[in-house]
User: Fold this.
Amino acid sequence: MECPKCRGRMRTFDRNGVHIEQCDNCRGIFLDYGELETLTRMEAQWAQQSYAPPPPHGGPAWGAHHGGHHGHHRHRSWVEALFSS
Amino acid sequence: MTVLKRTRVLVIRVGDVVVKAHPPATDGDALARRLAAVRELDYVLLAPLGLERLGDRLVSLWPAGEPITVDDLDAGAAPWEEGGRLLARLHSRPVPPGLPPAGGPARARRALAKLDDAGVPAAIAAPVRAAYRTLWPDTPRDARPDARPGMRPDDDLDGAPPTRLTHGDWHLGQLVRRRGGWLLIDPDDLGGGDAAWDLGRPAAWYAAGLLDPGSWDRFLSSYLAAGGPAVSASDPWRELDAPARALTVQLAATAVATAWRAGEPLDPAAEALVSACERIVAATTVSI
Assistant:
C-alpha cells in the first residue's frame, strides 16, 4: 500500500488484534474503520489498570506517561547514553 | 595504555594519568581559563595536572579516577544523589571573572547540524527540527544563546535566567570516584550560563519515559536538598522545561543522525526521544 501523504511504502503491523499500516518514510499511520475506537477503548482499560500517583516533582506538559512498564531503560543503547555526551 | 574515548576528543589512560587530546579547533585561551577556574573548585571538580600543546592538538593531563560502570547501574547503584549534590555545590559558587560562557547551547546547535551532515531525509528530521524551533521562539536569531559565542557572563538579557557557574555537559559519565569521594570531571564546556541546563539531560530522559521516576526523584531531591539554586522546589519544571526541551532535541538529533549514518533503524531509546520531540511540538503549538 502507498502512503496517501508522501507516497512512501506502508508496512502492516498487528498490535493486539489491531491492524496498523505505518509509512516507512514519514512514519504516518493509517487505521482501518473502527480501529481508532478499539485503540481508545484499550487505552482507557490500560490507564485504569496502571494508575499511579503523580511523581512528587511533577513533569512537563509534554512528558511521557510513567504509569506502567519501564522497559526502555534496560536497553543497551540507553545504558550507554547515561555515560556519554 | 587504555583508550577510554575516541570521538571529537581522544582520551587515553596511562597508569595513574588520563591524557585528553582536545579537538583541533579548541580555543586554547578559553580552555586555559576553564582549567584555571577548576583549580579553585576543590571537592567539586577534578583538578588537572597540566596542559600541553602537541602539534595542532591541546592535550590536558588528569589524575585517573574511577568511573561509573554498567555493573554499578545494573546493581541500582547509579550515584544520582552524589550527582545532584555536586551540581548544587557547583551552581552555588561564583562565576570567576573572564570565564567563557557555558557550552550547553552550542552543543545543542552542533547536534542539530549532525542531521544535515549525516544526510538525514527532511521527513525523518522534521519532528526534531520542529522541536528545536520551540526553544527560543521570541528571541531574534542573533540574540539566541546558541548564537552568542562571545557573550560575557554578565551580559544577562532582560528576563533571562541568572548566570551561574554551569558544567555545560552533565551526565553520569561526568562523575568519578577518587579517594573515597565523588568529583565532577570534564570542564570543556564549563562557564557562566543557565545552570538548569545541567539538569536538562536527566530531565529530558525522564520526560521521554526513559529514566524511571524513582531515579529522577533521587537526583532532583538531592539537588534541591543541597541548596541547588537553578530550579524552584515548589515548581521545578518552570525552570526545567526549556533546558529539558533543548536536551531532548540534542539527544534525539544525535541518535537519529547516528542511526542514519549506520544504516540502522532507530532503537527504542531513540524512538522515545523522537516521540518526545513530537509531543514538544504539539504542546507548544497548543499553548500559543
Q: What stands out?
A: Residues 25 and 57 of chain B are 8 Å apart (CA to CA). The two ends of chain B are 55 Å apart (CA to CA). The domain at 67-287 of chain B is CATH 3.90.1200.10 (Aminoglycoside 3'-phosphotransferase; Chain: A, domain 2). Residues 148-158 of chain B have pLDDT under 50 and may be disordered.
